[in-house]
Write a structure and sequence with these properties.
single chain, mainly alpha
Length: about 140
């Protein structure tokens, strides 16, 4: 019984002493995590602002689509001309519906049935986005053929 009384009396005191001893370390770790979270948040906001400025720049005008689905009206520049900026091609301008959800193998299988202009838009979009070597390699192969 005496042990129980001693434990009940001294345990809270020991716990309090340990908390007081660990408090500076815990506060230091919390400050580090807060600083890291602020840094990551600032980086994310800066990157988002940069992408927004690129998308809203006057050069970032999406290609015009005809009323018929999947037919591109805008003419793609000649090979010796300066290519359009990759950010200017939106997924809605691509000839393949649900392009972002398609695996590379499906896209590669459908490329041969597209016009060169449609393939050029896919190349611009892929270069600006996921940059899949399978898709880009097939596009290069079809261009040379």
């Amino acid at each position: 019984m005496e042990r129980f009384a001693a434990a009940a009396f001294y345990a809270p005191i020991g716990l309090g002493a340990q908390l007081v001893g660990d408090l500076p370390v815990t506060v230091g770790k919390a400050k580090q995590q807060i600083a890291l979270a602020r840094f990551i948040g600032k980086m994310a906001v800066d990157q988002g602002a940069k992408q927004l400025r690129e998308r809203l720049s006057p050069a970032a005008v999406p290609p015009v689509l005809s009323p018929e689905p999947r037919k591109i009206v805008e003419v793609v520049p000649a090979a010796n001309a300066v290519p359009a900026e990759p950010a200017s091609v939106g997924v809605e301008a691509l000839a393949l519906p649900d392009y972002d959800q398609l695996p590379a193998a499906h896209i590669v299988g459908k490329l041969q049935g597209l016009t060169q202009a449609e393939r050029d838009f896919i190349e611009l979009y892929e270069t600006a986005g996921r940059h899949r070597r399978t898709v880009l390699g097939k596009l290069d192969q079809l261009r040379k053929a």
